[in-house]
Description:
Blueprint lengths: L6 E10 L2 E11 L4 E5 L6 H9 L6 E6 L2 E7 L2 E4 L7 E4 L11 H6 L7 H14 L15 H13 L5 E5 L7 H17 L4 E5 L2 H7 L2 E6 L2 E6 L1 H6 L4 H6 L4 E8 L2 E4 L2 E3 L1 E6 L5 E4 L8 E6 L4 E3 L6 E9 L3 E7 L5 E7 L9 E6 L7
Parallel strand pairs: 3-9, 3-10, 7-8, 8-9
Antiparallel strand pairs: 1-2, 1-4, 4-5, 5-6, 10-11, 12-13, 12-17, 13-14, 15-16, 18-22, 19-20, 19-22, 20-21
Helix pairs in contact: 3-4, 5-6
Amino acid sequence: MATDPYFSVQNLLVGYGDTIVVNGLSLTLQRGEIGCFLGYSGCGKTTALRAIAGLEPSRGGTIYLNNHRLTDKTVGHSFAVVPAKRGMGMVFQDYALFGHLSVAKNIAFGLNKWSAADKKSRVKEMLSLVELTEHADKRPSELSGGQQQRVALARALAPKPELLLLDEPFSNLDVVLRESLAMNVRDILKRTNTTAILVTHDQNEAFALADKVGVMDKGKLVQWARPSDLYHKPVSPFVAEFVGEGAMINGIIKDGHVETALGDIYRRMEVSDEAGSPKYCEYDYPNGTKIKVLVRPDDIIHDDESSQTALVIGRVFRGANYLYRLQLDDGQTLLSLVASHHNHEVGSHIGIVPLLEHVVV
Length: 361
């Protein structure tokens, strides 16, 4: 028996006048799952989050949370629960902490209906959860940006919201801190089994924190999937180029496989035969069909013994590795990650072994 998802949005439509900002957004989350809206500025991701919170009126669609109907805008029918009654917590990019209150009192702010004993116990629990017990009596101004962010998270989690919304929560922090704090926040949300939705333009942040990521473009949710599927199985060229790095090279269909400058690609089936070997199946396009093939940097393995070579036309040092920009004999370019103890200058040739089973056609 299939159970209803804990949180669902169906065909959400948000707009002003003739402008549609969020167009037909649909997604589901199970309890304890973390979702993320990822996209460029102006793609509609923050508006979608605000509409879920009830802070932005929607023109169409339904929102259900834990079997409760929050928004239902259909033909001849209009229903919306006010924001304060939606059972949601929010964490904003500027944290919105109260500067005149201590850390403990900030966390207790949303617990005014709780008894004094329960409130004290919950604040203690939250301080421990975000590892700020010894900072309980400090003012927010005495804390670092990362600590302030954890106070904001503890305050939002204290009333036990049914859904937590995080709007660009790490954008004020430096890049190094962002990813580690995102992983830290994920741990906290998982320990409390909190269902959450994050908005960000930073894919490393999205991948570090979320179970499901939705790439948005011009108000539409282009793909809603696990991070690994977005990276390895993008549904469109937009998603392929937005998520991760890679290069598009030319391919042509020949007898059910793809011919490229890197070699032939045979489609690998997920199923195996009786002996456990992967079965290959043909690409179902007519012979001579021209296609584009997405090749990720980790699909091109550096091997000095290989007879297949490429010209190094650019490189970026990344610490553990270099990201090389390579040119094939026919002029097409691609990227490759090479361990940094191999030092190949621009203008030299390096041996490569393409892993053609990972590529996306």
